[in-house]
């Protein structure tokens, strides 16, 4: 049987959400570990005044792609951006592109979604459900399609305590919901959203559950796998430890705690923090693509991609390791000394919010006002409280996921593939992982931004100064010639001693 890299050799792969956090890691890993892949077709939309080509070119210059660039400087030739706005009918793909895609695609990875917890229902439905439906329709027209891999979330069924690797009946028939929301204005939809989502915490988990059902309905016609990662965090090992590019989920919380802004949060010390590194999720996703295409299971296979059942780590331990990392390696320009604590008690949390968040913010803003500056701390805290109130649902309880399919998939890999596409979560050393998460990336990125900015500022000021002042020019030439003389002397003396 072909290894994973052998399988992807010569294949054309379609990816949605390639500009997102997980999509980028997927593109990078495919290019690096399956170098014979024929082409990656990325469905991308223009955004923020940038064309889709520009966005993809920018993405490929980022540090994440350093290792691929080293191995194959021409890797960009394998990347084919296709203009697509997933919120539009037909995904806004041109007829020529549809023809191209239906004629050549072998594997589809559907990563695109809105992951915001506060997304209005209509928007979340349009992107997470209707766009998925449209992509499935496109996939059904593909002549050589071997596997359709849909990225869902382990929390799609977070209204259950025990979650098996099955697709549960949807909270509502997606078609009926789509039809009814069509005629309702946004105000009415907003009013009925809490009733519709019922015991789920947000429109994100609700629409992701509906999307799974939509995908499952096509399981007779397509070879489908559904990947359900839990809380996706920074990379564990690849392409280097600690890579992350956003403040979603716990990352924003970690940085706010490191900056001394966040001092309290409602979370259960003893609840499992089901974090999973992004590189492990992507390794499993690529392995699932291979398995689906090679074995063609009769019905959709669901992979709960979680850590809690195999290598559990708890929110209390996360708090301990995050704080100890930041105490040993403090972030620059912190608001206060980092000292965050989690508690499951609502009243205690409210007390600390008042004493440790609101009161210092008030004092700081008063100081800013008195010194003629714009107050900002209260605004920052209000945003933080909004973000945290949306996350607390996930940090205050735990779930039990069955992950037999993840183990089954691992057992199907060759020893070599098990190393190259490692998703064995037993190997995770949590303290080491958290250290890299907090320090290696977050700290380095902040420092790099500051150093780059400061260096550019100094160079800029100096250039302006030199251009305008004869004295500055004289000083500059004097310093340069002194350095030159020193270097010549140093070289001469080292030649003599050798
Ligand atoms: C030290 C003690 C640590 C103990 C740890 C305890 C608990 C951990 C906490 C959380 C774990 C739960 C995570 C559950 C994840 C479930 C897994 C999933 O299935 S999927 C994906 C998860 N999706 C998300 O995480 C999206 C969540 N974000 C949002 O919905 C929105 O960003 C928002 C929070 C509603 C804010 O929206 P708003 O329009 O107000 O603004 P922006 O999005 O533009 O962001 C504004 C500002 O806030 C920063 N931000 C964003 N997210 C967070 C966050 N999680 N924590 C803190 N700050 C956050 C964002 O970067 C912006 O900052 P800036 O203005 O400086 O750019
Ligand atoms: N991050 C996490 O913790 C977890 C994520 N997941 C799932 O993983 C998948 C990827 O998540 P993640 O990478 O974190 O999400 P991101 O928000 O980082 O990326 C979302 C991607 O979807 C694209 N997209 C959004 N709207 C549109 C649109 N209208 N048209 C075209 N493309 C669009 C974005 O493109 P653009 O750059 O143009 O906005 C981006 O590439 C999602 O399905 C999510 O549900 C599951 C569990 C946890």
From TrEMBL:
UniProt xrefs under InterPro entries: FAR, FAR_C, FAR_NAD-bd, NAD(P)-bd_dom_sf
Residue spans crossing the bilayer: 451-469, 475-492
Alphabetical keyword list: Lipid biosynthesis, Lipid metabolism, Membrane, NADP, Oxidoreductase, Peroxisome, Transmembrane, Transmembrane helix
E.C. number(s) listed in UniProt: 1.2.1.84
Membrane topology category: Single-pass membrane protein
Primary residence: membrane
Residue stretches making up the Fatty acyl-CoA reductase C-terminal domain: 357-439
Catalytic activity, reaction form: 16-methylheptadecanoyl-CoA + 2 NADPH + 2 H(+) = 16-methylheptadecan-1-ol + 2 NADP(+) + CoA; eicosanoyl-CoA + 2 NADPH + 2 H(+) = eicosan-1-ol + 2 NADP(+) + CoA; (9Z)-octadecenoyl-CoA + 2 NADPH + 2 H(+) = (9Z)-octadecen-1-ol + 2 NADP(+) + CoA; 18-methylnonadecanoyl-CoA + 2 NADPH + 2 H(+) = 18-methylnonadecan-1-ol + 2 NADP(+) + CoA
Domain Thioester reductase (TE): 15-284
GO cellular component, one term: peroxisomal membrane
One Gene Ontology MF term: alcohol-forming very long-chain fatty acyl-CoA reductase activity
Single GO biological process annotation from the record: lipid biosynthetic process
Function (record text): Catalyzes the reduction of fatty acyl-CoA to fatty alcohols.
Protein name, as recorded: Fatty acyl-CoA reductase
Originating organism: Dicentrarchus labrax (European seabass)
